[in-house]
């Protein structure tokens, strides 16, 4: 049994139900703050491709919608999920919309940012579609900026799945 704090979180899924991270133990996890009306929104397609390709090997992708960056995800939780499914065929779990920075930041993001800072030591999330890659033991091993496409991190995912 891992002692990683990662497995103690239980954020709320878009359907209002608890999504305990304890069910992710032993899996490689990619966490992404998403937005439906962003220049990077097309990354949903690549995220879904990764999910389809690696889910059976132990990859879980979790999307956390966020409206903190230029109000690029203004819809309700159900509207966001419907948008993702209709436009990008998203089947990976989408959580309830959260804040990733500031006074009301979600505890998951507070922890993720404490584990791996961004460029030049910056702790905050700079924009939509920043990604955190977590290994099978619940450790944050990589943090990627918004410009790093999901397909560009496939090699890192494959490496962790083999460990």
Could you explain how this protein is built, in words?
- The structure is a single chain.
- By secondary structure, this protein is of the alpha+beta class.
- The chain has one domain: Glutaredoxin.
- About 25% of the residues lie in helices and about 15% in strands.
- Strands 2-1-3-4 form a four-stranded mixed sheet.
- The radius of gyration is 14 Å and the shape is globular.
- The two termini are about 15 Å apart.
Q: Return Rg in Å.
A: 14 Å
* Beta-strand percent range: 5-15%
Helix content: 25-40%
CATH topology: Glutaredoxin
Summarize this structure as a short list of keywords or feature phrases.
163 residues; alpha+beta; Glutaredoxin; 4 helices; 4 strands; 26% helix; 14% strand
């Amino acid at each position: 049994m891992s002692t990683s704090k990662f497995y103690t979180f239980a954020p709320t899924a878009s359907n209002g139900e608890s999504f305990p991270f304890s069910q992710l133990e032993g899996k490689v996890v990619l966490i992404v703050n998403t937005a439906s009306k962003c220049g990077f929104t097309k990354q949903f397609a690549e995220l879904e491709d990764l999910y389809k390709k690696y889910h059976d090997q132990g990859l879980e992708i979790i999307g956390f919608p966020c409206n903190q960056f230029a109000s690029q995800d203004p819809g309700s939780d159900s509207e966001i999920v419907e948008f993702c499914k209709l436009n990008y065929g998203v089947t990976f779990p989408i959580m309830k919309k959260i804040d990733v920075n500031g006074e009301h930041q979600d505890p998951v993001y507070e922890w993720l940012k404490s584990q791996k800072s961004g460029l030049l030591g910056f702790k905050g999330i700079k924009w939509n579609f920043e990604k955190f890659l977590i290994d099978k033991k619940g450790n944050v091993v990589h943090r990627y900026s918004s410009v790093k496409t999901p397909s560009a991190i496939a090699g890192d995912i494959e490496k962790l799945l083999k460990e």
